[in-house]
Amino acid sequence: MEKKTAHTHFSNQQLAETFRLIADLLEIKGEVIYKVLAYRKAADSLEHMGQSAEELWQENRLGEIPGVGKAISEKMDELFSTGQLQFLEKLKAEVPVGLAELLQVPDVGPKKAKMFWKELGVTNVAELETAARAGKLRDLPGMGEKSEARILAGLEALSRRTTRTPLGVAWPFANEIARWLGSLPGVVAANPAGSLRRMRETVGDLDISAATEDPAPVMDAFIHHPRVIEVFAVGDVKSSVEFDNHLRAQLWLHRPEQYGTALLYATGSKDHNVRLREIAQTMKLSLSDRSFLQPDGSEKFYATEEEVYAVLGLPWIPPELREDRGEIQAAKAGRLPHLIEVKDIVAELHSHSTWSDGQASILEMAQAAQQRGLKAIAITDHSHSLGVTGGMTAEDIRARMAEVREAQAKMGDSFTILQGAEVEIRNDGRLDYPDEVLAELDVVIASLHTGLRQPKEQVTARLIKAIQNPHVDIIGHPTGRLIPDREGADLDMNPVLQAAKESGVALEINANPSRLDLDDIQSRRAIEMGIPLSINTDAHSPDNLDFLMYGVATARRGWVEPQHVINAWPVEKLVQWLKR
DNA sequence: GCCGTTTTCGGCCCGACTGTTTTCAGTCG
After folding, report:
1. Gap from A142 CA to B22 C1', in Å?
2. To 10 degrees, what angle do helices A12-29 and A86-94 make?
3. Does the CB of A185 sit below 7 A from strand B?
4. Distance A207 CA to B29 C1' (A)
5. Is it the case that residue A291 has pLDDT exceeding 90?
6. Helix H segments across A284-438?
7. CATH of domain A12-159
8. How far is CA A462 from the centre of its chain?
9. What digits encode the pLDDT tens for the residues A498-556?
10. Which pLDDT tens digit goes with each residue over A372-400?
11. Most CB contacts within 10 A, which of A165, A324, A386, A460?
């Protein structure tokens, strides 16, 4: 059959946004909630699947997407074929589209949005603010002065809130709070939960769970933590605050004997939990955050997640896998991956010294790596065309070799320093050094730093040309994205992955929490294709080496095992691979 | 609107918190 050609291209992200908008407008209109949830579920699937919906559409395979049935398939078909969606246009004529953004305001949901629209003619956030300031909200049914003030505060928070918080900011802070909670009298356990525990690259609010027999003093201590600047809600089991760094956090308290179900519930993801509850239902059990409800109405409590999974006939599933991306089926079949861990990494293959924009000498970087238990480090300073970094010329590389040898002598035989460079991929896809210079290096990383906004065909061809250079070992931060500010290059990933597979080049998972590039989904596709990965910190100073945990976390979310990662191999095997 | 080795029709998670209420509605996770 002939392949279909799209009238208009839509990325999965764009499709997801379209269906989320439909869901919001339908909900405000008052459509049955399950129809609304169905659109949101389809949007989630589109966002989280590794494949492009447009490709599936071309092959008439849209129905394979979980949560996409006849109606939503037809809507995507119309979008690809015509660039339009009549259903949405009619919906917009019924419900002002600006009302959807009202749902972003804390304490404003579909019911209130509809009421503000019908009673006051409010159709967007700006009009809501005007109405609230004029004191018009307080007289509406179910509203009062307090509700009006909360919405005003919510509007202010909304204008202040930028984006989701990068993991690299949220993780250290949440753990500091959790450790502090754990040190309070009577607290048996305290953990970050939610997307933070699943190590998603960005997180919204922080979810923290703790176990104690005596919740009142713990809750009281929490809301009076010296860094808390606002308390939004406080109850016996749950409270919600904002810290002075503008991170918001919820604390859930549970009795220690219920902590297993509680932590599982709070960790999510929502979809993972839904699957677990479905399994429970087949066993005539009802799983909640507090217990398993038995058919006779009694409850059984479990203190650990391991016990909860065991009741369901499953092994414990690492939080990074809990995204409903096949982990439950794998657990059932006894085929969970043996996920890579930080301790599996033996070598850092992407680091910088004072020979380019790094802050430390080669020896200092090597010593810092050794202190962290590594057996080898590649010093991969920038090449000269990346002017801002003070990159090396070919002559600099030869001069640097002497310093590497000196540092190697001081480090002794138990630690290896590799000669490397992070070579710029120029605008035409050629590398910054001639082949004979590249041949002298142990490790060649090729990276894009400029021209990331080139058209898809051009930037993809450029990267593939670099992949095909026989001296290149690793592609550094392949897409060039920066979290949360900059989208990566508009790469066509299929041919890029295919080229990496054919050339046997490793793709990097850059562990810098502002990069995490490749991401979890792309990493999983790469290992499924048999492409080797390399997890590196891109350290510009000794303490940057501690970014490793974020790269490993991203790899774990991508189901990566140690054998997939070249710098988790024994050093001898790694060195041999580099010489291939 | 989606989905099905319990169903092609009838489910789809539900409890905590707040505010405005005299027993509940809306929001949130």
Report:
1. 14
2. 40
3. no
4. 10
5. no
6. 305-311, 327-332, 362-371, 394-411, 435-438
7. 1.10.150.110
8. 27
9. 999 999 999 999 999 999 999 999 999 999 999 999 999 999 999 999 999 999 999 99
10. 999 999 999 998 876 556 678 888 888 89
11. A165
The second-level CATH assignment, the architecture, of A165-254 is 2-Layer Sandwich (3.30)
**In CATH, which superfamily holds the domain spanning A264-332?**
DNA polymerase, thumb domain (3.30.210.10)
Sign, Cα dihedral of A25, A27, A31, A33: positive
Question: By CB neighbour count within 10 A (0-12 exposed, 13-18 middle, 19+ buried), where does A119 fall?
Answer: middle
Using one digit for the tens of pLDDT, what is the confidence trace for A18-47?
A: 999 999 999 999 888 889 989 998 998 888
Q: Report the protein residue whose CA lies nearest the C1' of nucleotide B19.
A: A147
Residue whose CA is minimally distant from B13 C1': A274
For A318-359, the pLDDT digits (tens) are 999 999 888 998 998 899 999 999 999 999 999 999 998 888
Q: Each residue of A205-256: pLDDT tens digit? A: 899 999 999 999 999 999 999 888 889 889 888 999 988 887 889 999 999 9
- Protein-nucleic contacts, chain A 297-316 to strand B, CB < 7 Å: none
**Predicted pLDDT at A386:** 64
Q: What is the pLDDT of residue A559?
A: 96
Nearest CA to A564 among A517, A536, A531?
A531
Token pair recorded at residue A468:
């095909």
Chain B positions with an atom below 7 A of a protein C-beta are 1-3, 6, 11-21, 25-29
**So what CATH class is A342-578?**
alpha beta
Return the domain boundaries, chain A: 12-159, 165-254, 264-332, 342-578
H/E stretch holding A578? helix A571-578
Could you give the CA distance from residue A309 to residue A314 in angstroms, rounded to a whole number?
5
Residue among A541, A535, A512, A534 at smallest CA distance from A362? A541
For chain A, the average pLDDT equals 91
Neighbours of A449 (CB within 10 A): 16
- Asked if strand B comes closer than 7 Å to A71 Cβ, the answer is yes
- From the list A315, A259, A263, A265, the residue with the least C-alpha distance to A286 is A265
Query: For residue A273, which nucleotide's C1' is closest to its Cα?
Result: B13
> Token match 């019924």: residue?
A94
Q: What is the pTM for the complete model shown?
A: 0.81
CB atoms within 10 A of CB A471: 17
